[in-house]
Amino acid sequence: MKGTGHDESPRDVWTKRFKQARLLSGLSQKDVGIAAGLDEFVASTRINRYEVGVHQPDYPMATRLARVLEIPVAYLYCDNDEMASLILAFPRAPKGARRAAMQILVTAGE
Questions:
Q1: Counting Cβ atoms within 10 Å, is residue 58 exposed (0-12), middle (13-18) or buried (19+)?
Q2: pTM for the model
């Protein structure tokens, strides 16, 4: 399986995924922080510190950040690039496509 890299820590994975998701959203650090419930005066700094790995949010904050970015929180913690792509794509796909993909994947693993 293709991972993000053998020398990446869980924190490195989280910060990489979080920054990618924020940049794809088009939101500023400040906008993400405020939408996640941070005070407007610390929002930008706090999000920046999450992105560079100085601090790591607890799970409830990670969940709020994921909601703001409209991504599954599992994406932020996924250490496998292929799986991370699937985590992002799956909920965005039409229901029929999700069912078909599940059927293929389940039967392929048997």
A1: exposed
A2: 0.87
Which parts of 1-110 fold into alpha helices (H)? 10-25, 29-35, 43-52, 59-69, 73-77, 81-89, 95-108
- Second-level CATH architecture of 10-108: Orthogonal Bundle (1.10)
Residue with the two structure tokens 């799956």: 90
Give the position of tokens 């796909």.
Answer: 93
> Which residue type, as a one-letter code, is found at position 75?
Y
Calpha distance 85→81 (Å, rounded): 6
What is the three-class DSSP state of 85? helix
Each residue's pLDDT tens digit, 93-106: 999 999 999 999 89
Domain ranges of the chain: 10-108
